[in-house]
Design goal:
The chain has 13 helices and no strands. The chain has about 300 residues and is mainly alpha-helical.
């Protein structure tokens, strides 16, 4: 009985310490994310439709990647809106760039990721931005004359933020945001407490540390089954980085995690088909591995 009480005290200590370190970033992310979703979402998506007037294909890919990061929608919200973009004449390579970066990052997750430190935050933003660009370039090179997506049957999603009172609209969105992220945030803090208590820092360093490609590959692989929610993985990554995880390994995890999140894969499978779905999977793994190695070489 004393052993259980002692372990409970240790885990509670790590939980409270981790919770207090990251709670402010989580709250700020929800507040800012809901504000963008309520007041700026339509403007951002209007800018995507405005890409039809862009003449340069590469310029359109770059702009689409930026707008994908700024979009507050989850993957299930992104695909229907991407279907409307496609019907309005947006090119497939621009859609690929927008969807790829939107899967990997959004304004709310940017705020969360600030808890990892400035360097990790900048690496995350840059690698996600480049991943979106490269996805668009790959579609431009290999599917120039063929359609890559199948959006048949998708309609533009209904806007849930329709209350005439803007303050009420914001509060309702904030409540949905809290329900969507709160449990995963607490679970992430709890798992982080367990890792800090029972996983030696030497093991983390051995698995994910240094400049070895093996550590990056391990992070890429473990990101597939472990990643559930962006906010929930921030406490875990914070713990691993403090225990010796290399920045390149963290970068690889932050690419494969959201890109292979089971709900995202289910949504993507419906618009890609098996062949293109495998193409997407290979692309994500290779990009995460190579970008992680490059990050380690640079830093």
């Amino acid at each position: 009985m004393e052993i259980f009480q002692r372990e409970f005290i240790y885990i509670r200590y790590y939980f409270i310490r981790q919770f207090t370190q990251i709670f402010g970033y989580w709250v700020a992310g929800m507040l800012i994310g809901s504000a963008i979703s309520v007041f700026l979402k339509e403007k951002i998506h209007g800018l995507v439709k405005g890409l039809r007037s862009v003449t340069g294909k590469i310029t359109g890919i770059v702009l689409a990647s930026v707008l994908g990061i700024l979009s507050p929608l989850c993957m299930y919200g992104t695909i229907p809106i991407a279907a409307s973009f496609s019907r309005s004449g947006i090119r497939d390579e621009w859609l690929a760039s927008f969807m790829m970066s939107s899967i990997l990052l959004n304004p709310q997750l940017i705020i969360y990721s600030a808890a990892l430190g400035t360097r990790a935050l900048l690496v995350r933003i840059l690698t996600c931005f480049l991943c979106g660009i490269l996805a668009g370039i790959m579609i431009l090179l290999f599917y120039r004359e063929k359609s890559f997506f199948d959006f048949s049957g998708f309609e533009e999603p209904k806007n849930k933020d329709t209350d005439p009172n803007p303050f009420v609209r914001y509060l309702k969105n904030l409540r949905r945001n809290l329900r969507a992220t709160g449990l995963w945030f607490l679970l992430g803090v709890f798992l982080s407490a367990l890792f800090q208590r029972y996983v030696p820092s030497e093991m983390v360093t051995k698995m994910f540390g240094g400049n070895e490609a093996w550590g990056v590959l391990m992070a890429s692989t473990i990101g597939v089954p472990l990643y559930v929610c962006g906010g929930g993985t921030i406490p875990i990554l914070q713990s691993w980085l403090s225990n010796g995880m290399s920045l390149g390994s963290a970068s690889a995890f932050m690419i494969t995690g959201p890109a292979t999140k089971i709900t995202n894969l289910g949504a993507l499978k419906t618009v890609l088909g098996l062949k293109h779905f495998l193409f997407y999977w290979i692309f994500v793994i290779l990009f995460s591995l190579l970008s992680g190695i490059m990050v380690n070489l640079i830093f």
